[in-house]
Design the sequence.
């Protein structure tokens, strides 16, 4: 089978990386599985959360994103990120690119009170643009942790902030020249500042502190709908969400219209999705509001046989029956 | 400044990744520094060792190498490797390549009693050959750990096994077609089986258990001489080693002659170098011999002002005054 750009298909992952896992150590609590972006292991008296993700799609923000994307994956398990390691692979070129990446990592890590503890920097054969692979390690305060696969039919689905925050920042930054002839420059500037909203660490730790969520997940590739598909697949459930209920920033709407792309399928770090017992969702949204975290109820977890669907604004029903290919790959490859 | 293929120069690293390290957490015991390939952090009641390295130079053994190279970096600190995460980046192509990589990781991890706990697999833009970035985490039994920068003038330098084990395996495997017309096929077959010798986990844990070493390091890029330079630089010392005292396998010698390369500057995982107090080196070598680990005394740590030098077999003195560029990059780029 030929494999193509983007995340590998679930069928391929299930035959390989979810199955061939080395030794079966008893201290591993959360193993690799579809939709689970972190691992949890036991050390005496503590639980560690580990996440590892590359940044390959964006060129100007790679360093910044690398820290935040991995911090997000650790935080949605309920743990505070603590230590980061980065592997920076570069094509031959000017030292300035490298410096700028390392500065971005330093800045993002400082804000999160994370230390950069080890890593590797190399000008590598076979790489034509900078690639950063980050690994974040965090510690849980107690024993409780959250995973993607914890949602139950009847739970409400909430999301924080707005859809496609990461995609908005990436497109506004990397395609700024092309876009500046099509859309208002002050809007474009605001859109490129969306990278400041990419962390969901506060959102996740706040939700964890209420104890009300049944699952947490941060949608990345494949956008909000991709994230919902992953949550449902990991939880073995269905879902229904309503386009009208999903907050999308004006900047995101304008950019997506100009590039003819769907904001619900555009890379979406910055948004957190969580499932919460049907009886508790109002309490959770109120608690988040008090803490200054914007959250909206966007739908409900269904039984698997009830399907996975988006109700569009006009009433059309769109089924989400497979992993969502991110709009970003299409846009970048069409350039 | 233009940066070129291979590890980045020390001057560049010192201005960037050794300086911009995010928050200054007090639980970090070993920070990034030249020659230090792992980090050590405190969790309550335990010390964790973390190492992160990519495999980009070899195509057929990437999965296998990724586990062992990172396990080596953790073990030379004195810790047993426990958990591995891998980021696998691929160009578009056949699924078989991916499967073979994951199987290699599974096999190597199983042998080391390591679990594969998280990761990411992606067909990535900007990548023209498979690249695996591994992160290994291990736990120290007690409080004592080893670093590259612990050698003292007057210490003896010992090495285990032979020089350029990794390079021998990579060249014999990846250039097998080209080499088969030049050298004996049974020798080539034995050389390609050198990847079985790449782990230094046993060597390192054995040396650690004696408590006699002052520093441990596993030479990788830049070969044995590159590793010695890193040890000296991290320890702020000089050194003298004798070509005649350095064990080189016959297979390695033949391959290096055919490709006109220096085995002492060829990528060298599989060998462990350690410094040991002048009065204890015989005890250490005897202890290793009893445990079935081959070790040789190859030279001595000097004061920095005494220089860093290799005495060639003929008596010529070669100064090692800067990081060593690996012969592998030259050979692969000349193909």
Sequence:
């Amino acid at each position: 089978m030929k494999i193509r750009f983007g995340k590998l298909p679930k069928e391929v992952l299930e035959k390989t990386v979810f199955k061939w896992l080395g030794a079966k150590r008893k201290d591993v609590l959360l193993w690799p599985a579809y939709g689970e972006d972190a691992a949890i292991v036991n050390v005496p008296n503590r639980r560690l959360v580990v996440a590892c993700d590359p940044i390959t799609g964006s060129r100007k923000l790679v360093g910044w994103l690398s820290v935040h994307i991995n911090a997000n994956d650790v935080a949605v398990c309920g743990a505070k990120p603590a230590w980061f390691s980065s592997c920076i692979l570069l094509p031959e070129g000017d030292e300035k690119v490298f410096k700028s990446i390392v500065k971005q990592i330093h800045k993002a890590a400082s804000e999160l009170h994370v230390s950069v503890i080890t890593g590797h920097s190399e000008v590598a054969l076979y790489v034509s643009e900078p690639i950063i692979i980050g690994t974040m390690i965090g510690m849980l305060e107690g024993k409780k942790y959250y995973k993607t696969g914890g949602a139950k039919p009847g739970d409400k689905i909430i999301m924080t902030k707005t859809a496609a925050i990461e995609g908005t920042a990436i497109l506004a930054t990397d395609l700024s020249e092309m876009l500046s002839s099509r859309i208002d420059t002050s809007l474009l500037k605001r859109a490129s500042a969306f990278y400041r909203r990419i962390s969901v660490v506060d959102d996740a730790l706040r939700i964890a502190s209420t104890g009300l969520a049944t699952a947490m997940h941060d949608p990345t590739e494949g956008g909000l709908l991709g994230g919902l598909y992953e949550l449902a697949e990991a939880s073995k459930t269905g879902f229904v969400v309503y386009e009208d209920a999903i907050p999308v920033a004006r900047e995101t709407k304008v950019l997506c219209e100009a590039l003819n792309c769907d904001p619900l399928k555009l890379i979406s770090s910055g948004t957190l999705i969580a499932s919460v017992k049907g009886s508790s969702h109002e309490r959770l949204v109120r608690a988040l509001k008090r803490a200054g975290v914007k959250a909206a109820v966007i739908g409900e977890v269904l039984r698997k046989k009830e399907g996975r669907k988006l109700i569009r604004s006009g009433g059309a029903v769109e089924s989400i029956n497979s992993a969502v290919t991110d709009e970003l790959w299409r846009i970048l490859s069409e350039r």
Residues 241 and 319 of chain B are 11 Å apart (CA to CA). Chain B has a mean pLDDT of 93.
